[in-house]
């Protein structure tokens, strides 16, 4: 705070620009600045900095470099002046003094005490005079912190420990209040940013090589690394640049009575894997030495650790090993014997072993032991990716141990057994692992009678409800609280994994055990229940069951017969799924695809099931689905329809189908063909006809890639195109249903149908064009007969395309003529309507004239009689003596007389009808009233 009083000469208000005249004496400006220091209100200690330049010169000057007593005296004064921390502007000199002391320490141990005192001050944040000092001296602060790490070269344990303590305080601890006059301490976040920007972490890791025989200092360095690696990706990456993971892991089992070395090393490794580049860290650990150290540390903690801390550390070691196995499947777990021992520890409870390692080992129901069991199952599942591991797992009878959990759950347990909740979680974890392991260990699966166990568990899952309610814990138990859905879900996943191997022995075993009928029964229950309550898990289980049925019945007539009418009824109900559900996000699109696949594998090919499927209008349902489903489902449905048309009874169903707006199946197929060609970028004109006769089928991608010479064993673009789109299936379908007399086709459809009919010819021409182009690209000239054949083929290709184009033009021209004729007929109808209206007007005018003029009526009567006489064939009979007149005499009407006559009277709307004059109250007619105009 300061107050200032100023006295200045007064300028005339009339002429502000007028300068002061020399006649008046100039009054000097007197400024009085009163500071907080003058008033005595400054808070905090007053910093009295030393002249560090003189101290540095005293220690480095050749004339005074040997004055050790003066050096020590000056160094001891330095901490007294900087009790609250060093100024940022003095950091360069402080570091210089420390380096001079460090260089002389080996010859003069007397520098140890002053260095320790100075390092004690380094634990405090740096002091700044201005806020801008943080930016101005940031580079200096980073270099200064880095120099502290370089001081680890000093061969003094006391100094090394002081450095570690100072770094921990500087980086982690919130400093005590530093109230210094005219100075302010840096924040903790600024200190952390300075450390992350320096190379301090890398230097400390490298210093571990100097401390291999000094356990105490090594532990202190590990403490610092432990703090630096917490939630700091920059520090972790710097440490990994110095091979921190390898340096720490290869010395895990160094002698340490306290056990602190293993704990802190594992903690740093964990931080490196979590916050650093995991792949880089694991790559450093991926060697024989590190894996052996991990193995020994894990076995020691498992067999000799009994405390809660030992169990947690044991689990952490196993998680690190799991991460290594996941990222590096080829890590030397087999070579080090780690896999064999892990298999032993994972199975010793379920499979008896005489190994000395597990003779006195017991796993309790504590949380740590429970997690260990799950981790052991998990790491063995991850390691099974390596083919060399599978024989060791089979030798250790891992599948037998895991299948011991594939059994019905119980609500109670013995005191030393897993609790029901723990058993359920282990059961689900075991089945998830079995789903991965069974394809690699089919023989073990059969030896364990896996199919029988799975079907028994499935029967229990669908049995009486209420006896067991799941807990739904952990990841695998999702959706299983209060029910058995989690067990059912993983049981089906395991069965799906088993049948996906395609091994006949597995498939036959499941069929012999009655899997088809049991799954049909379960699916029938789903179709009979309300589908609005289904969630993603229910849909997933139904998909798995349909996939299992497809795999079991594929290619075997007897199994398709076992699928029977019951299975056909089920898939027909699934085909009636509301199309709106396909985009619900619950997976109904997968369910529809699984249904079509089940039809293809379990129904098509067996006349018994095919006929019943046709009887249940299955073809209609398939085409209904084809009409509304997304484009990416068309290929599968068309393939199923194509195989179904091998049965001649299916073709009338296809021709009889009608969709929205009375659309026929042939029209739908043509529409799909056009959409497929639009997506491919095939050149067509506005009417859908061929635009380029040289490339009638080629899409944009194929045209851009061009023709590349390939070996004979590699398919060319024209051949690959057959399987990459649906045009070949559509062509085959039309070959089945025919190209003529198809109902419901438009002219555009006929234009498209002309291309479809010649698809095979165009495709052959496309292949020949590729052959010719490849020969030209390779510079090969065929012999003269072959050259003539090639020229003939080339002309035939163009002629065939021109013929189709001509046919398409004729169709379009006929359609244009037909449109013109229909237009003329429409206009003729309009003209006839106008003529009839004019005739009606004239007839009415003539009628009015006859009724209003008697002479006109007589003339009309005469004309009518003449017209009647003229219409007769002969009129001689009128001259006979007995001729009787047919007309009434003196009848002045032009209408032919008869017993009844229709008279156009005044409309009822005007008269009010016969009761208009009736008075309902009196029962008499109302009197007539006249209104004067």
UniProtKB/TrEMBL annotation:
Keywords: Cell projection, Cilium, Flagellum. The keyword Cell membrane does not apply. One of its GO terms (cellular component) is non-motile cilium. Residues 50-771 form the Cilia- and flagella-associated protein 69 ARM repeats domain. Pfam families: CFA69_ARM_rpt. Residues 1-22 are annotated as: Disordered. One of its GO terms (biological process) is positive regulation of flagellated sperm motility. PANTHER family: CILIA- AND FLAGELLA-ASSOCIATED PROTEIN 69. This is Cilia- and flagella-associated protein 69. It comes from Lingula anatina.
């Amino acid at each position: 705070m300061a107050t200032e009083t100023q006295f200045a000469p007064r300028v005339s208000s009339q002429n502000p620009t007028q300068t002061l005249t020399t006649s008046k004496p100039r009054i000097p400006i007197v400024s009085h600045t009163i500071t907080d220091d003058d008033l005595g209100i400054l808070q905090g200690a007053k910093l009295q900095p030393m002249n560090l330049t003189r101290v540095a010169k005293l220690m480095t000057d050749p004339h005074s470099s040997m004055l050790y007593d003066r050096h020590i005296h000056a160094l001891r004064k330095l901490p007294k002046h900087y009790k609250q921390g060093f100024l940022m502007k003095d950091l360069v000199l402080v570091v210089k003094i420390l380096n001079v002391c460090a260089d002389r320490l080996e010859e003069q141990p007397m520098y140890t005490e002053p260095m320790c005192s100075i390092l004690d001050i380094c634990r405090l944040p740096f002091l700044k005079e201005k806020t801008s000092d943080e930016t101005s001296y940031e580079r200096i602060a980073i270099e200064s912190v880095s120099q502290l790490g370089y001081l680890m070269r000093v061969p003094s344990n006391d100094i090394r420990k002081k450095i570690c303590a100072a770094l921990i305080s500087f980086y982690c601890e919130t400093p005590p209040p530093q109230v210094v006059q005219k100075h302010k301490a840096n924040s903790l976040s600024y200190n952390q940013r300075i450390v992350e920007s320096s190379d301090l972490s890398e230097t400390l890791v490298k210093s571990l090589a100097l401390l291999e025989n000094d356990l105490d200092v090594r532990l202190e360095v590990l403490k610092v690394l432990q703090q630096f690696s917490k939630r700091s990706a920059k520090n972790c990456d710097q440490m990994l640049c110095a091979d921190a993971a390898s340096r720490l892991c290869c010395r895990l089992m160094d002698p340490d009575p306290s056990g602190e070395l293993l704990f802190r090393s594992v903690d740093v490794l964990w931080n490196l894997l979590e916050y650093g580049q995991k792949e880089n860290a694991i790559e450093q650990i991926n060697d024989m030495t590190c894996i052996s150290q991990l193995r020994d540390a894990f076995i020691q903690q498992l067999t000799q650790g009994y405390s809660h801390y030992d169990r947690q550390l044991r689990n952490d070691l196993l998680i690190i090993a799991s991460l290594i196995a996941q990222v590096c499947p080829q890590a030397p777990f087999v070579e080090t014997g780690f896999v064999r021992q892990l298999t032993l520890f994972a199975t010793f409870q379920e499979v008896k072993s005489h190994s000395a390692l597990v003779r006195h080992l017991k796993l309790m129901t504590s949380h740590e032991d429970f997690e260990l069991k799950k981790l052991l199952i998990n790491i063995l599942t991850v390691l099974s990716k390596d083919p060399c591991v599978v024989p060791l797992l089979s030798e250790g009878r891992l599948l037998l141990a895991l299948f011991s959990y594939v059994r019905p759950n119980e609500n109670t347990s013995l005191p030393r057994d897993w609790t029901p909740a723990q058993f359920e979680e282990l059961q689900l974890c075991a089945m998830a692992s079995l789903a991965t392991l069974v394809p690699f260990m089919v023989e073990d699966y059969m030896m364990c009678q896996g199919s029988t166990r799975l079907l028994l568990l499935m029967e229990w899952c669908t049995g009486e409800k209420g006896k067991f309610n799941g807990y739904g814990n952990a990841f695998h138990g999702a959706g299983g609280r209060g029910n058995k859905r989690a067990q059912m879900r993983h049981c089906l996943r395991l069965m799906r994994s088993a049948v996906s191997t395609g091994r006949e022995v597995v498939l036959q075993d499941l069929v012999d055990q009655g899997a088809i009928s049991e799954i049909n029964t379960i699916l029938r229950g789903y179709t009979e229940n309300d589908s609005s309550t289904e969630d993603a898990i229910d849909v997933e289980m139904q998909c798995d069951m349909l996939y299992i049925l497809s795999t079991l019945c594929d290619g075997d007539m007897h199994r398709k017969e076992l699928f029977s009418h019951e299975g056909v009824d089920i898939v027909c109900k699934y085909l009636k799924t509301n199309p709106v559900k396909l985009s619900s996000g619950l997976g109904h699109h997968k369910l529809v695809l699984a249904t079509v696949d089940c039809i293809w594998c379990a129904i098509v090919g067996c006349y018994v099931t095919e006929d019943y499927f046709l009887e249940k209008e299955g073809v209609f349902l398939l085409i209904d689905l084809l009409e509304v489903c997304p484009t990416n489902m068309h290929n599968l449905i068309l393939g199923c329809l194509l195989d179904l048309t091998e049965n001649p009874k299916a073709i009338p169903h296809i021709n009889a189908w009608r969709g929205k707006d009375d659309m026929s199946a042939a029209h739908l197929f043509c529409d799909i063909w056009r959409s497929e060609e639009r997506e491919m970028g095939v050149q067509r004109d506005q009417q859908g006809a061929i635009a380029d006769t040289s490339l009638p089928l080629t899409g944009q991608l194929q045209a851009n890639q061009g023709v590349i010479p390939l070996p004979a064993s590699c398919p060319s673009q024209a051949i690959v195109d057959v399987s990459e789109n649906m045009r070949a299936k559509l062509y085959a379908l039309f070959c089945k249903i025919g190209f003529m007399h198809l109902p419901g086709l438009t002219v555009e459809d006929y234009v498209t149908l002309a291309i479809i009919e010649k698809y095979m010819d165009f495709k052959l021409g496309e292949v020949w064009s590729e052959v010719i182009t490849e020969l030209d690209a390779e510079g090969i000239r065929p012999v003269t007969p072959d050259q003539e054949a090639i020229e003939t083929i080339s002309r035939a290709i163009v002629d065939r395309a021109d013929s189709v184009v001509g046919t398409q033009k004729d169709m379009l021209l006929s359609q244009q003529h037909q449109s013109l004729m229909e237009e003329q007929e429409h206009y003729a109808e309009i003209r006839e309507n106008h003529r009839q209206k004019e005739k009606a007007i004239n007839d009415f005018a003539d009628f009015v004239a006859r009724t209003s003029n008697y002479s006109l009526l007589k003339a009309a009567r005469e004309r009518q009689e003449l017209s009647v006489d003229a219409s007769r064939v002969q009129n001689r009979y009128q001259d006979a003596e007995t001729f009787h007149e047919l007309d009434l005499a003196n009848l002045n009407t032009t209408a032919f007389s008869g017993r009844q006559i229709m008279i156009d009277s005044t409309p009822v709307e005007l008269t009010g009808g016969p009761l208009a004059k009736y008075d309902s109250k009196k029962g008499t007619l109302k009197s007539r009233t006249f209104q004067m105009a």
